[in-house]
Amino acid sequence: MDPYEIEFIGENRIVSIIPNFSYDKIYLICGEFGPFRAGLPMNVPLWLAVMLKQKQKCRIVAPDWMEVDNLENIKEEEKRSRFFTKMPNEHYMVEAKLILGAASEDIPNASEIKTIIKDIWDIRMSKLRTSMDALMKSGGSYGRLDHLTMMEINSVKPLLPAAMDELLRIQMMSKKTTPATLNSSTFSQSGTSQNT
Amino acid sequence: MANNYLSISDILVSNEKVPCRFLHDLPKLGFLDPSCTEEDLKAGTSVEIPLWLAESLSSRRPPLVAVDLPKVYKETYREIFNADACTVDLHKLAQYFFELGCYVAKYDIKGEVATTLVNTFRQRFKMILSASVSTDSINALQPLSSSERDRTASAMASEKALSTWLKRGDSLLTTANMVANHRKRKRAEMEML
To answer: What residue numbers bound the domain in which B48 lies?
Structure first.
């Protein structure tokens, strides 16, 4: 799965904006969004917010979790704990990238927030890698991966299940230690029928 | 084995040679042993034959050959793998190490090949992880076996996609794989030609 597909899924989240124009209700496929009144905050999906911002028709309000103190706490929590901590929302990376990319002047302390979120991302990714390695070394049967966001899961998507499948296959095949099983006798039969 | 009959990699794996000892005299089959001078193959000669031949010959009743373990799965190499599996260059030694090991493990009396396979797999997983994020891909891929290389290649591709997404903001719209491979699209292309 591409990161862009996950961005697409993450763009559906609701954020709050302050439009600077007035308009009636709009009826979209995903739902209706209330009458736009200049100066009054309202909730719209993230993709709509970014589009309006790029046309300079609104101001994006920072989501609740995007403040320096909150993020510092989360970072400390992440550093201390061995497992993954609960992130403020499922697509924090997507939201952060889009909002900070399009509307960094609307968010207070945007550059600090960018650094902190990048730090949290790095800590989680390295924790993910070490825990993957520990998983393979120890038992390889199951591992605890709660509170992982979709983006992080996607980064290990091809590798981890394939490796575990291979491990399972090696373990299953090498358990059959009797040389004359049903499989090999049919194998030899089909071999001879091919020759004639 | 049933689901691997048509898989190309499985065909390549079963083409690998394994040493076998013939248990009976076989008249007129002396040509199988390149160092033999007579026409008949004596009992007890040790020949390297491909795995698919060895499997069918050894599973008849009474068995015509007794399969020995190839060099890579014997005692000395097992010690090396148990000590440190990451320093071995599997590409030079045995390209299809894990798959061949699955087949060969059945003939091992002591059953240690299985544990060695699993242990080497686990230890080398770390190598795959580091190879997927490294920039020097050619050197990193060099000592890996064929199946490990596939896994590393897919991990590298997903890492690259992630880092491009993190750097760039937008992307060009590209057709999805599902759409490009759809039969209707291909038919339309062929009609245009």
So the answer is: 17-69
Å between B192 CA and nearest CA of chain A? 31
**8 Å CB contact of B161 and A3:** yes
Residues of chain B with C-beta less than 8 angstroms from the C-beta of A180 = 59, 61
Q: Is residue A99 part of a domain?
A: yes
**CB pairs A-B closer than 8 Å:** 113
Chain B residues closer than 8 Å to A187 by CB: 1, 55-56, 59
Chain A residue with the nearest C-alpha to that of B130: A129
The parent domain of residue A163 ranges over 3-179
Q: What CA–CA distance (Å, rounded) separates A196 from B143? A: 42
- Whether residue A188 lies inside any domain: the answer is no
What's the predicted TM-score (pTM) here? 0.74
Q: What is the 3-state secondary structure (H, E, C) of A66-134?
A: CCHHHHHHHHHHHHHCCCCCCCCCCCHHHHHHHHHHHCCCCCCCHHHHHHHHHHHHHHHHHHHHHHHHH
Task: Check B60 against A136: CB less than 8 A apart.
Answer: no
Give B178 or B77, the one with higher predicted confidence. B77
Among residues B43, B53, B51, which one has the least CA distance to residue B73? B51
Q: What local confidence, expressed as pLDDT, does residue A19 receive?
A: 92
Q: Is residue B44 part of a domain?
A: yes
Mean pLDDT for chain A overall: 80
Tell me, what CATH number does B177's domain have? 1.20.58.2050
Are B59 and B104 in a shared domain?
no
- Is residue A189 situated within a structural domain? no
How close, in Å, is residue A146 to chain B by CA atoms?
Answer: 21
